[in-house]
Amino acid sequence: MAFAIQEKTSSRRGGDRVPLAARIAIAGRDGRPLLEAALCTNIGLGGLCVHATEVLAPGTPVRIEIRLTGDRAFACEGTVCWSKITLHPALLGTPKGIPDDGCFGVRFDGASTQDLLPIARLMVAREDARRRARRMRRLHGLPARA
Question: FRET pair for 127, CA 20 to 30 Å: which of 3, 33, 97, 135?
Fold first, then answer.
């Protein structure tokens, strides 16, 4: 009996993401702040997702600064590549400051391998934690995926 190996279809994003809930400072390339309160919800080597009360238009050049876990700082220039506004029926389309009123993706532009090391370390640490959790579940006779 032959089994077909099914390739995981990739989405439009380039690479894996790590969930992360951290405040992010977003400014224009000239240093002028663009958003007051923004939250990074996931990050990867190619970019990140931001939830905020307002969105930036695709194509907007930005400079981001974020503090990762372990008190590692990450700063990079990027471009807003997509944006959407979530309309809640209860709000009748009027944002009230809920974190998911709008979200947009930022693609990192010109980041060197050295610049991306803090994100790579974060991704490796997450994979190590997942591997340990799977091993502990297996040792205790629990299902591998819970």
Answer: 3
